[in-house]
Sequence to fold (490 residues):
Amino acid sequence: MIASFPTPLRLRSPFRCPRPLFPRENGGCRRRGWTWRSSMCLAAAPFVKDGALRVNGREALTGVPQNVVVSPPLMDGAAAFLGAVADREDSRHVFKLGVLRDYRLLCLFRFKIWWMIPRVGTAGSDVPFETQMLLLEARQYEAVDGGVREAAADPAFYILFLPVLDGDYSSSLQGNSSDELEFCIESGDPATTGSRFLEAVFVSHGSNPFDLMKESMKMLEKHKGTFSVREHKMKPGVLDYFGWCTWDAFYFDVNPQGIEDGLKSLSKGGTPPKFLLIDDGWQDTSNEFQKEGEPAAEGSQYGARLVSVKENNKFRRTADGASNNGATSLKDFVSNIKQTYGLRYVYVWHALMGYWGGVSPDAAETKKYNSKLVYPVQSPGNLSHSRDLTMDCMEKYGVGMVDPEKAFDFYDDLHSYLMSQNIDGVKVDVQNILETIGTSHGGRVSLAHRFHEALEKSIAKNFQDNSIICCMAQSTDSIYRRGIQVEQCF
Fold:
């Protein structure tokens, strides 16, 4: 069925702006003063009529199928949700929304499971799998000798499509070779099934694409109640300072001496950092896939699992009393470099599941987290793009998944230990792994909610001023399930 709603006559927007639009008696708009500004003014609600999705008087999509549903308009008609109804229940559906042609468009899509990049085009076939934002530019054209030109009296406006979370399902956009725009909606758990999805894709429009994006996210924040926009999050102190991350300098081989050499070099060059991020390579792990004296197979480092929340031997005195480059403990090392180089903040890295290969189920210090070995399964959308070595290896070697009921205990133990070592915050990486291990846990959205909630609770308890950086987390599961958390790391 197709549900539509009458177009409201007027929108009273709460968004402040310097130049409002007022209706002219003969149609069109005029400007008055510099008091209000909104990219979503005098909005007509998106609706379907005669098989076309109409947005602000324009046909955004044609050939809209009968099973597409348009929700009641939000905010006096500035936006609405698109959804669809299937004739069967399943954990994954792909629905056609209609034909998309003759628009300049910009997409943000996941070319790997972790990351988004942009793509531009003019039709539905240009929209890749795993698209998480679609922006259309709508312009009016008039006939002239020898062709067409933009109508000067009719400025451009923009139509925004945002696939979001709908209950326990995550959605994304994609196009096909017939220029049909589709949305894919999936739970990530064969046992979590459904057939009716009413709020899968958010649609809004406005005259300024930058304001449109901000206002749309604020509307979704209010309507969904599952995440906070940047303006409503506490800003961590590190945002005010120049910082250095050790990853590109050392990769997995980070060590105390190398860090000190880097700090000396930056200071000597006139750019002393006030924020240091000790990336991957400081944790206590074991790896059954790497044998001493044998060459390591490519990617086998991603099979390593966490065996303790403490630092490894590079950053502490060993059992025989030896120390590595003078480091007797993580706390002593961090305290020393803070004092010597004037650092205000030191963060460390860890994966959402502890390490790339998760938490060891058998190690004496980690048994209490009841982790179990699971093997990630990617969705068809992710498999259609670039393969990723880290993901391939995690599928091969498995991940020691912490019992969701023990997630807070794990994060609290880790973060309270780090706090005792004079660490000020954390970068939490590999977050999108959750969407691949949702089977038997209610699916990817439900699992992400449980782990993010536990993580944020621990951050709030153990660190000051929201001291977390989120990384490898560019998915709707993460974007629309954020409470206190700060910026995504790109």
